[in-house]
Amino acid sequence: MNILERIVEFKKEEVAEQKKKFNLSVLREEAEKLKVPYDFKSAISGNGINIIAEVKKASPSKGVIREDFDPVEIAKAYERGGAKAISVLTDKKFFQGSPFYLRQVAEAVKLPVLRKDFIIDEFQIYGAKALGASTFLLIVSILSDQQLKDFIELGRELGLEPLVETHDEEEVERALKAGAEIVGVNNRDLKTFTVSLETTLRLLPIIKEEGKLLVSESGIKNKDDILRLREAGVDAFLVGETLMRSENPEEVLRSWVS
Ligand SMILES: O=C(O)c1ccccc1NCC(=O)[C@H](O)[C@H](O)COP(=O)(O)O
């Protein structure tokens, strides 16, 4: 089993356990009542350098990335530095994240917050809204065509436009067919951990031809990477590790967006 398959297997058990603890109808009612905090799509549509900065304590490929970890302080530094949105890992087992970090961050910043998790059930989408998220991630490779379509539609009914993540031509076609408006290209192969920014550049024409927003995800190290991708037509950049390892993420972000 590769890492992605292991994560999904564990996620199925985790969601089944959560469903025993929390009533889906109550969660749905709560989620439907809440106002969407911020519009993610417009936040990342501007002409400048649109960074989605990620709060990421650890990862399966790198282990612990940052020991002194305060999600709220990190998110506030990102906001001061000029991030347009914040991504918060809510997976506990593989990323040392938490749904509580999402709630805390959403209360602390005036930016859209993305729920970064391995979403396989509508329960997690209602949960995202109830926790204060303005959007959530859908990973094409772990969902069927029907799930993809249903989850995008459910997000829209709740006022959340999802970021739909792809890694190759076939996944881009599936994302577009399912109706995705914001297409992410993950430069990291989640089965092997190989990272290449060329993945974004290769898939870009298919996504831009359809007039969709394109987010380049993973492996972005510096301003040169960003400018190269921006010049090619990328709309926004999802950056985790580089910012989490930085002593001063606020300054790094400021230098990127200026
Ligand atoms: O980051 C990993 O090791 C990883 C492993 C398995 C599944 C997903 C994984 N990462 C999720 C992400 O897509 C990244 O957190 C995100 O794009 C930021 O990437 P980076 O800037 O390289 O930290």
From TrEMBL:
Keywords (A to Z) from UniProt: Amino-acid biosynthesis, Aromatic amino acid biosynthesis, Decarboxylase, Lyase, Tryptophan biosynthesis
EC number: 4.1.1.48
Pathway membership: Amino-acid biosynthesis; L-tryptophan biosynthesis; L-tryptophan from chorismate: step 4/5
UniProt xrefs under PROSITE patterns: IGPS
Entry's Gene Ontology BP terms: L-tryptophan biosynthetic process
Presence of keyword Thylakoid: no
GO MF: indole-3-glycerol-phosphate synthase activity; phosphoribosylanthranilate isomerase activity
Protein family according to the UniProt entry: Belongs to the TrpC family.
HAMAP family: IGPS_A, IGPS_B
Protein name per the record: Indole-3-glycerol phosphate synthase
Organism for this UniProt entry: Phorcysia thermohydrogeniphila
